[in-house]
Amino acid sequence: MSDRRPRAARRRTPEPPDSAAPAEPSPQSGSQSPSVVQATLYRDGRRVASPATLAETFRQLREHPDGMAWIGLQRPTEDELHSLAAEFDLHELAVEDAMEAHQRPKLERYGETLFVVLRAARYLDAPEEVDFGELHVFVGPDFLITVRHGAAPDLSAVRTRMEADPELLALGPEAVLYAILDAVVDGYAPVVAGVQNDIDEIETEVFGGDPAVSRRIYELSREMVEFQRATRPLVGMLHGLMAGFAKYGTDEELQRYLRDVADHVTHTSERVDGFRQALTEILTVNATLVTQQQNAEMRALAEAGFEQNEEIKKISAWAAILFAPTLVGTIYGMNFESMPELGWSLGYPFAVGLMGMVCVSLYVIFKRRDWL
Known about the structure:
Elements: E1 36-43, E2 46-49, H1 54-63, E3 68-74, H2 78-88, H3 92-99, E4 106-110, E5 113-124, E6 129-139, E7 143-149, H4 155-163, H5 166-169, H6 173-208, H7 213-243, H8 245-248, H9 252-332, H10 347-368
Helix pairs in contact: 2-3, 4-6, 6-7, 6-9, 7-9, 9-10
C-alpha cells in the first residue's frame, strides 16, 4: 500500500520562517484542541511520544523520519484540517470531503495517500434503533489520520489492541487501517443480532394484530437502507485493496487479515440484504392482514346494519298499523256537538269496523313486503 522511503523524499519540508517577520501563532499552539482525540508517535511498533498539540506532533515526526504518527480527530475545525493538509500534502478534494459528513463509503488514492470513508454502526438497546457514524481515514507512508463524525466506532479500543501487538503495529499505517476496518466490520455484528431480534418481534406483532407495527416496520426498513449503504460499498473497497497487494507490496500477514475482514463484510452484506427482503415480505403480509381485518369489520358492520334495518322495518310497520285506529279514535273522541256521526246509531260499529279494516289491510300489505 505504501513504501518506507525517507520522509524528506516524500513530502515538502517547511522552510524556516523569516527571522525579520514576526511568527504567526499556530492554531494548535498551547493546549490540545478538543477535536484532537489523541496524537501519538510510534517507532518500531512502540509508542515513543504523545504530543499535546498538532504542531508538536509535526515537529517530532520531522525529527524522527523513521517513525509513524497516528492522529485521531473528532469533528475537527477547518484550520486543523488545513494544517494537516499542509503538513502531509493531503489532496484538497479529500480534505473537503473530510470536513463534511454524509459521504458515501469509498476508497480513493491520491498519490501515496489513501483516503477511506467508512460508515460505522451500533445498535441502541433502549430505543431499539441503529445509530450510524462516519469515519474518514487518511493513510500515508508514515502517518494515519482519522476524522470521526459520530460516536461510532470506538477507536480507543483499536489503539489499545494495536499497541498490545507491536509486531503488527510495526507494519505501518496500513496495519492500523486493517485494524480500523476490522473494528468497523466487527461492530456490525451486534447490529445484525439486534435487527434480527427486532424482526422476530415484528413478526409476532404482525400476527398479533398490533396496529402500531406498520410504523415500526417502516422505520426499521429505512435503517436497513442506511445499513445496506454502509456495507455494500465496503465489499468492493476491500476487494480493491486486495487487488493492490502485489503492486504495493502488502505484507502477507496483512493480506490474510484483510481477506478475513472481506469475508466478514460479505457475510454481513448478505444478511442485510436478507433483512430488507424479509421486511418487504412482512410489510406485504401485514398489509394483507390489515385489509382482511378491515373487510371483516366492514362485513360485520354491514350485517349489523342489515339486522338493524329489519328491526326498524318491523317497528315502522307495527307503528303504522297502530296509527290507523289511533287516528280514527282521536277524531271521534273530539268534543264537538256538530259532528253528524254522533247521532248515527250505526256510528260506533262503523268506526270499529273501519279501524279493524285499515289495520288488517296494512298488516297484509306489510306482510307481503316482508316487513313483518
